[in-house]
Specification:
Elements (H helix, E strand, L loop, with lengths): L9 H14 L23 E6 L5 H15 L5 E5 L4 H13 L3 H5 L8 H14 L3 E3 L6 H11 L3 E5 L13 H17 L3 E7 L3 E2 L5 E2 L15 H5 L2 E7 L6 E9 L7 E6 L4 E4 L13 H10 L12
Parallel strand pairs: 1-5, 1-8, 2-3, 2-4, 4-5
Antiparallel strand pairs: 6-7, 8-9, 9-10, 10-11
Helix pairs in contact: 2-3, 3-5
Length: 312
Amino acid sequence: MSAKAHYTVGADVLTDWKDSLFNGTAPRLYRVGTGGLQSVELGPGRVVLVGGLPGGGKTALAMQLVVDALRAEGGLRAVVCNVEMTPGVLLDRQLARLSGVPLDAIRRRQLGAEHAARIDAGLATLDAIADRLAFVQPPYDLGNIAATADDFGGELLILDYLQRIRPPGEHGDRRGSVDALMDYLRQFADAGCAVLAVSAVARSKDRRGRSTYDGDSLSLASFRESSELEYGADWAGVLVPERDPSDVVTLRCLKHRHGEPQDVSLRFERRYQRLTPVDPEPAEPSQRVSLAQLAAVWGRTTPADDDDGGDE
């Protein structure tokens, strides 16, 4: 007895596709920043993967993207699972970024009158999003993250970092565990969630065979316990420090499933845990045509004859 076939006829797909092309809405993408950061397409149905070497700014970037998405999207709710930093530490960092008061002064609680106005402004920003932001408490496993997102109504999930979060079931090794985790995250995205995942990267070999974190050697295969990570992500990038100037890092886009990969140069101000695009705005095409304009043009177009009698 043969297995039951599951398929869709191309003509049916084409009908629905044409309808969505001219009458549908564009995919929802969160506004996560300015300049080149706009090329990081984070939204429902997308899995965004960010990697980098230890201390390279992965968590700073992830939290910046999340907080700025919450600031821009009034109804958005986010769930953060960070296995290494407490919510208080993460908020210290965001307050430094938003206020412009050095992180050392905030974390040491050495605030003076000279900081008051800036601290008040930063706190006001955090107060405005606090009821739409939840932090996962132990255990740091996918079941607890999913339950938290369901209970809180979280649409945006942040996992920092993947190699320390346990998926359901038994797995033979760390690689199998990470592969299973990414498979689940892909299912979350297919169900309408937005997923921002932070990953450790493995050392690569340089030209002399030495183990290194050198940016020129990083690739999709550098994501630690890789395999499904690079295949399951819609957008994947690594933060690479530049030698000159030393405060600049490059968010190197290694994969963009829905567009052209675009690297982003960022100035990483570590004392404020702030990453700012070096180029304030991305290059824009000279002309844009809306879907409505395209549909109108399409409706006025006369179909070509099917015979072969015309001029070549």
